[in-house]
Amino acid sequence: MKVAIIGGGIVGATAAYYLSKENDLDVTVFDSGHGQATKAAAGIISPWFSKRRNKAWYRMARLGADFYQTLVADLKADGFDTSFYQQSGIYLLKKKEKSLKDLLELAQERRQESPLIGDLELVALEEAKKTFPDLQGFDQAIFASGAARVEGAELTQTLLSAAACPVIEKVVKLELVDGAYLIDNQVFDKVILATGAWLPQMLSPLGYKVDVRPQKGQLTDYFFDDLETSDYPVLMPEGELDIIPFTAGKISVGASHENDKGYDLTLDDAILSGLEVEAQAFFPKISEANRKQHRVGTRAYTSDFSPFYGQVPDLSGVFAASGLGSSGLTTGPLIGHNLVGLLLGKETSLETSDYPIENYIEK
Ligand SMILES: Cc1cc2nc3c(=O)[nH]c(=O)nc-3n(C[C@H](O)[C@H](O)[C@H](O)COP(=O)(O)OP(=O)(O)OC[C@H]3O[C@@H](n4cnc5c(N)ncnc54)[C@H](O)[C@@H]3O)c2cc1C
């Protein structure tokens, strides 16, 4: 069976990896890489503190965080370096003490079904500085030891190397010719559309209306020659700002959520410097970085901010996922794995009807 995956972000790369474990499958990935959200992501995996009321979304997000344990174990067993994922913990801040205590209570409740959260406690600034020196700007934080950070670009590279399938770097179209699926002059039996924010462009030539919109996201990576940042926890104040330490002295600061910029990928100095100023209030050392670089990508979101996946209505053998929004690095691997289950007719871990594709894709 010949399977095409269009899109090599987190969803497509995970699908490629798990499909490559099946016998008698010939998998090809097509990915332009342009504007990819996965490469631009901040990489925080910590869904348990979300106040969103959408239960189906929360189930997907908490199971998505859990699924990293499986993904990392599978890649390790296949002999791959998995340092792209590290549970270095998180400090969460709230302006009001009561909000902090309420959030701690919520997380303690959620820990019963999600032990991955790990240790949960209120810590004073002085305590937090022992694991993330030079912090300031708050008295107390919630610490959760099981929260993780992921290098999106490294993760997809690892998955695609492990899949060992051809990855063709170009923009492609899906065509339906005499009942066959044609992509880049090749015929495929089954197709996965993992095109993120570009699903409307993929499906509208085939007569579909797709409820997916682009959201621009920008962040900055700061590099410090003299800091050993590998074990620093993530710092998540209220609002858009997050401070995410990675290995080798890299600390990322982001990210913007811009709904009115379409697919624009130009860097906006005003937004990036605004985030830097906000970050200085908590980590003044940011202004001493030896160098910095910016990243920008396009997230996909739907009118009710819910992700979806499944078989494209009336296109037997064509599966799609999109609308992963701000939490797609958390949910993406699980969605990719579930798409593979659907394509192979196997049991899936999520209830597909909870994320109904027909609500977002209409012929
Ligand atoms: C700045 C920023 C910060 C974020 N931070 C976090 C975070 O901390 N935690 C979290 O959980 N999530 C985060 N996210 C969200 C997460 O990154 C995305 O939801 C997720 O990566 C989406 O994955 P995807 O595979 O659906 O799409 P993408 O990663 O966008 O991949 C889609 C790919 O398809 C390709 N493509 C599209 N059309 C075609 C075509 N016609 N032909 C060939 N290729 C095509 C694109 O070029 C792209 O490479 C962040 C996103 C951004 C932008």
Automatic annotation (TrEMBL):
Keywords: Flavoprotein, Oxidoreductase. This is Glycine/D-amino acid oxidase-like deaminating enzyme. The keyword Transit peptide does not apply. It holds the Pfam family DAO. It comes from Streptococcus loxodontisalivarius. Its cofactor is FAD. The keyword Oxidoreductase applies. Residues 2-339 form the FAD dependent oxidoreductase domain. Belongs to the DadA oxidoreductase family.
